[in-house]
Specification:
With about 160 residues, this protein is an all-beta fold. About 0% of the residues lie in helices and about 40% in strands. It folds into two domains: about 45 residues, no CATH class; about 120 residues, Tumour Suppressor Smad4. It is built from no helices and 15 strands. The chain has a six-stranded antiparallel beta sheet with strand order 6-5-15-14-11-12, with no helix packed on it. It has a five-stranded mixed beta sheet with strand order 8-7-9-10-13, with no helix packed on it. A hairpin with a 2-residue loop joins strand 14 and strand 15. Bound molecules: zinc ion.
Amino acid sequence: MKKIRCPKCNSYTIFDETRYEPGQRLVFVCEQCNKQFAIRINPERQAARNMGTVIVVENAFHFRQEIPLEMGDNVFGRFVRGTGINKPIETVDPSVDTRHCIIRVQRAGNGELEYILRDAPSGTGTFYMNQILRNQDRIRLADGAVITIGATTLILKATPSDPQ
Ligand SMILES: [Zn+2]
């Protein structure tokens, strides 16, 4: 069973996530305040293809989320209907753009995974360790890197380098 919190009134709803497919999007209506909100069932992480994860820290606008990364550009932003990005965040944070920042996952010459952050560009900016990125900035992220977009905090959980 899984506990989710209403982004408006903070009351909890319990549901059985095992009844749904990984990656499936569910819409809830809060029994307390009638707020409608959506969540996505976390896609199953396949250990063999684990490229790292971005943790979306819970705040007043959304619940905690774990978003698996993939090779190439991972484009983060606020989920909207018909979104064209591959890493949408379920949030009502108005200061998160629908296309906000990008983490590029690539393999370096020595076989290690690299995580490169850039701004999309966004209206409110992308911050790495509380420093705003300039348009041309490409920031190489290490495990545990803290990224701020709007009022939303992202934490990188990097995959340890695998010997190749
Ligand atoms: Zn509510």
